[in-house]
Amino acid sequence: MKKFIVLTLFGLLIMAFSATAYALEFKASGMIDFDTVLEENTPYFFGTVSAVHGRTTGSIFQSWITPSFVTTGPNIGKVAGAFDKSAAYAYSRALLKFDAVVSKELSGTIFFEMDALRWGAGPGGFLTQASERNTVGVWSTDRAAVEVKNIYIDAAVPGMPVPVKARVGAQPLSVRPRMVVYTDGVGVTGEIKADPVTIMPMWFKAFEGTDYASDDVDVYGLHLNAKVNTFTIGGYGLYYNMNSFPIIYPTGYSWGTVGSVSASTSASYGLYVAGTQKADFWWLGVYADGKAGPVDLNFDFVYDTGKVKSPLTLTVDDVQNSGWATRLRVD
Fold it and tell me: Cα separation of 149 and 250, whole Å?
């Protein structure tokens, strides 16, 4: 069914292109920033294990955001590494977005990102020396450091009783990003204006794996909101159907074992493999944004539930997971 929906959307886009004879209008936008940082006891997420805080071992995903402690000698029990020292560095980022607009009903967007994760950094990108991602700050520059963030087409779907738009391509999966998710990926999203309600269905392909095997990962979602007086009231549901879990991870990392990666092996993460487990997860939430007199209010509540199966672990059928979070912000 999902393939039929996707093929139908692509056919509508082709019809829209072939039936339109307008002149293209090109637009460019973006930003450049330069930042300096002076910090103490504030570990930074990006970089190799050895480059961030002088740590010698630790999980690439967790250990530098959790202090390690000396286990032997006269300083036993004290914080190890550089967590008790100040750190200073500079970095910068540039974003460049191009829009090719045929009309209000049809446009295409390409979005680039260029980062100098550290001024004066060495060659090689995040987690792997095979990449030059985030390396604009390398001495002598001239790096292959232009990242393609988004590429998508926006098109109005003709012949519908209410306004319907479709976006196809590499785009943000964004649902309450301060609370739930913001991830760039490939997929199809829609916007249906059935006043006063806006309906936003979505499908994303997180992982395809082998074409002839059921090892792919799909994300399905439905997001609705409506304007009620001075408030926007909304609700959403996201379903992650993960036939490979985790989606991918570096071969040098022992999944689920904290402290399993050493700095000496951190340069070998160029090869990634899919997980051998399976998972199904749901995120369900409601929210409200608006103004009550002089006060701005933002409210969120989200509940998640799901399970992880490990077909290769015969002694464990599955592990159930559930949780909830809420937020109220008053300005």
Answer: 21
Question: Please, what sign has the CA dihedral across residues 121, 125, 129, 130?
Answer: negative
CB atoms < 10 A from the CB of 283, how many?
Answer: 20
Claim to verify: residue 187 and residue 287 sit in the same structural domain: yes
**How distant, in Å, are the alpha carbons of 120, 186, 200, 206, 241 from that of 173?**
33, 9, 11, 10, 15
What DSSP element (H or E) covers 263?
Answer: none
Q: How far apart are CA 65 and CA 49, in angstroms?
A: 11
Q: Work out the angle at residue 148's Cα, subtended by the Cα atoms of residues 146 and 149, and round it to the nearest 5 degrees.
A: 125
Same domain? 137 vs 249 = no
> Both 133 and 257 in a single domain?
no
181 with 281, same domain: the answer is: yes
Q: Quick: pLDDT tens for 95-135.
A: 999 999 999 999 999 999 999 988 988 776 544 445 788 88
- Residue 187, judged by CB atoms within 10 A of its CB (0-12, 13-18, 19+), counts as buried
277 and 190 fall within a common domain: yes
Give yes or no for a cis peptide into 246 (omega within 30° of 0): yes
Collapsed DSSP state (helix, strand, coil) of residue 92: strand
Structure tokens at 234: 């909304």
The answer to the question of residue 54 being in a domain is no
Question: In the prediction, which pLDDT does 52 show?
Answer: 35
In the chain, how many domains are there?
A: 2
- Domain hosting residue 92, numbered range: 1-41+84-154
Cα(157)–Cα(8) distance, integer angstroms: 11
